[in-house]
Amino acid sequence: MLKRADKNRKLKPATLMVHGGTTRSGFGETSEAMFLTQGFVYPTAEAAEARFKGEEPGYIYSRYANPTTRMFEERMMALEGAEDARGTASGMAAVAAAIQCQVKAGDHIVAARALFGSCRYVVETVMARCGVSCTLIDGRDLGQWQAAVRPETKVFFMETPTNPTLEVIDIPAVAEIAHQAEATLVVDNVFATPIHQKPLELGADIVVYSATKHIDGQGRCLGGIILSSKDWIDENLHEYYRHTGPALSPFNAWTLLKGLETLPLRVNQQTHAAATIADRLAERSEVSRVLYPGRDDHPDAAIARRQMAAGSTLVAFSIDGGKEAAFRFIDALEIILISNNLGDAKTLITHPATTTHKNLSPEARAELGIGDGLVRLSLGLEDVEDIWDDIDGALAAV
Questions:
Q1: Which domains does the chain have, with CATH numbers?
Q2: What pTM value is reported for the model?
Q3: pLDDT value of position 193
């Protein structure tokens, strides 16, 4: 634990990711302890009663809270600037819980249409089964957010940058529209990472992460997290979380704590690699389009400069020749691995039209700019020259 509680507000992210939220047992361990327990014991029946009433601090059951999970939550709170947080079993558990805990039958959601396929399934299909309607709009068009608002609108939801075309949505402007409508804004910040973008500081009410991605960053475990104000979590998420059970495993929480220790180092290196590769791809005749928020030719470059510290760790680009050419390119890669994950220490590539967004209709994919030649590249920690040599050789196969 840091010697002064208020130091969290002054320390830089790299320091917070090593020390933030640490609680040591009586053994004084250097590395965070892993509490693999379902339950906790009480000194007396009166103490158990007081703890269940909320009159006495302490843990009750690991589905509610756990010391290792709480360390992960507090470290993320320190990085994000949030008052409270809840760790979840996966990123999708975080998305689903953050939305569902605050709506009821008859309510309405407005969401940017450029979403990860499972996120669209939650807002379009799962919520519809619960009697909650959803309107999908072009998230970059502020007029569409405004026009979609109804008296029963309760939630705005978006990713920025988006998956996989890296659209950047104006968080402060959308937050203002949401708050005028007395709705809450939920932002999935997984592509930007908390190193490059702070949605809560920009006006969002809730931020969610798939901790599986950059936060773990080494392909080891699943996890997610929801961060917000203490009031919002107490009033909306707390009871939902306790009773529906999306809790994060203590073992995974410990693994994610280890990932956070190197998060700034990894993300900054991966971002440097992404910017380098994007610039080189833009010069290749085999590539018809490059999408990277850190480049001046990105359609949303001005917004990215205002709200992001850097362009992120991913690049999307289109290979001339459609699916056949894209598959030839991907299959010719030797170092870069074919995987739909991202944020890993290893450089990964996927073909969104046949993987992450395959369940969308061809018309919906076209509307989002997901052509048959589009590939998504997540930069890892290999030497950038080796990554480029691999790409250069594979482009020759196209």
A1: 11-261 (3.40.640.10), 263-397 (3.90.1150.10)
A2: 0.95
A3: 97
